[in-house]
Specification:
The structure is a homodimer. Chain A has ten helices and eleven strands. By secondary structure, the first copy, chain A, is α/β, with parallel strands linked by helices. The first copy, chain A, has an eleven-stranded mixed beta sheet with strand order 3-2-1-4-11-10-5-6-9-7-8, with helices on both faces. In chain A, β5 and β6 form a beta hairpin. Chain A is globular, with a radius of gyration of 19 Å. Chains A and B meet through α8 of A and α8 of B.
Chain lengths: ~325, ~325
């Protein structure tokens, strides 16, 4: 696999990203079969590789300039900074020179860049972004949408359920994944207009193993859903509240490794589902460990058949 | 004050409710100035009072029959079970014989009963329900709506901000309460259609001390909002996820009393705001401690000028 890494993206870039690359190369056994394409300042990247004795690994340095800043207006940045690491990464991916691209940089710019150059899968109404959601048993379900579509129609959510099911099957190797709808009551007639209508669609869709509504008071403890469906506003709210929990656990210095399931560093970020590309978004605060795990995650998705399966499903739907 | 208590409502009623009444009478100094009206099975209540030597307190027993069950259809129950504790409590409150009524019973039935007999305050578009939201410093903000209005218009949320501000001022004694809008981004242009429009209304309303959007990753740790505004769907999601956190803390046997701020027993339940009555909804699982604190909370609201202030504001708005 060829995985593109945005060396210039993130609050602690380029240092944290390069340290993450080093962890990936030296601490995983994937470095032999995967080539990293490092999009960044040539001088900085090359001297880091030399100083850390990393030149022996499968690496390609793609020189970039004109970094997109974290707070910058996304569309303007994408239009003007054509030589930036974000734009170049997307361009390389689109040309087929890399199999996946990941960035912890300006999320808006990454999304704007991807959405303006990569097509959504034919037949899909809206791409979305997904995130692992920790469960009490130490495994993760996948929650989607976590922020790409703040306003949704029931038909979008029905398709998110399909995207999530294929993702769970192809990437997480879950057979017949169980799908739940995030809602404020267990009964089908509970919820807002969106979830009430979505419940009926999911119930009647033979391609979804729908197990019903999931209330957030069961989110971490008892539920068994592999895929949790929500509109992007609600999904983002739930994701950020979970982040707040982890912060609280750290602030109170709770000594229990179990709560590390809430540490985003374990998976590094979210992936965009439903486009004809493999693009992952890292957390702005990404640490080296988070970058390492984001590369592993990208590699795993790129090696899977998830994109092909998405296309097969929606082309025939 | 005269506070009505639904002895028959709740998963562990009547035992847990009566035990909660006992805690209120014997452990607080409010029993001298407050009379409890106990709506329930006369024989059960009277023998409990005798056995526990509680007959010396200011108590009135209102005999009821035909309990509304927890899973029962709300509207049918309210229409048919006119002698039930829920219906009788509401009737007594409406006649002015009690100053507040509280129940841990069938929430739907309580709401249906209240909404069909008590008028919303003139000028208010929608009543809502509120809940305390714990903060890192050990205090609570008030979150509203937490479930009464799953689908909202921006104008509803603007009025919730007013209700919350008056509540914070009159009941929690916060001067010039800070209001935040629950949202998925800090910037005014972030969010869904509802929050984007609401942000503008809140910003331009001179009667609200609006401090901007609040993302849930700051919910427990850093924010300083006294009032947090959300539609009832999102508010309920956030409340239930917080409940899940507390369950997780308990399951993992974390020894840190700080996390007791997440224990609903501390405040017992939610209050309905914006109606010409003081009605509090307890958690279905209410323990005796939760009932005791719910009575204290009801007493506090009944003694405040919150209803008068609501009416003054909306009549003149």
């Amino acid at each position: 696999m060829k995985i593109g890494v945005d060396v210039q993206g993130g609050d602690f870039a380029p240092q944290a990203v390069l340290d993450g690359v080093k962890l990936f190369l030296t601490e995983t056994d994937l470095a032999g079969s995967t080539t990293l394409y490092l999009f960044g300042n040539e001088e900085v990247v090359k001297s880091y590789l030399a100083e850390n004795d990393l030149e022996k690994y499968n690496l390609v340095v793609i020189p970039t300039e004109d970094d997109v800043e974290m707070g910058e207006s996304p569309t303007r940045a994408i239009a003007k900074k054509r030589k930036s690491s974000i734009v170049q990464g997307i361009v390389y991916h689109q040309k087929g020179e890399i199999d996946a691209f990941l960035s912890a940089g300006n999320t808006g710019a990454l999304l704007a860049g991807v959405m303006s150059t990569v097509k959504p899968i034919a037949g899909l109404l809206r791409p979305c972004i997904s995130s692992p959601m920790p469960k009490f048993n130490g495994t993760y379900g996948v929650l989607l949408d976590v922020g790409l579509n703040a306003d949704c129609k029931p038909e979008y959510l029905e398709q998110f359920a399909i995207l999530g099911s294929i993702y769970a099957r192809e990437v997480q190797h879950v057979e017949n994944p169980k799908v739940a709808l995030l809602n404020i009551g267990e009964e089908p007639e509970k919820g807002n207009l969106l979830t009430k209508a979505t419940h009926q669609l999911l119930k009647n869709n033979p391609n979804i193993n729908f197990i019903g509504n999931l209330e957030p008071n069961h989110l971490f403890c008892e539920h068994e859903a592999d895929v949790i469906v929500a509109d992007g506003f609600t999904g983002n709210i739930v994701l950020k509240e979970a982040e707040s929990i982890y912060k609280l656990i750290k602030q109170r210095k709770v000594q229990d490794d179990f709560f590390e399931i809430f540490n985003y560093e374990n998976y590094g970020g979210t992936s965009i589902l439903g486009i004809d590309a493999t693009v992952l978004i890292g957390h702005g605060h990404s640490s080296p460990v988070a970058i390492k795990n984001l590369i592993i995650h990208a590699d795993e998705i790129a090696r899977s058949h998830v994109r092909t399966k998405f296309k097969e499903y929606f082309e025939n739907a």
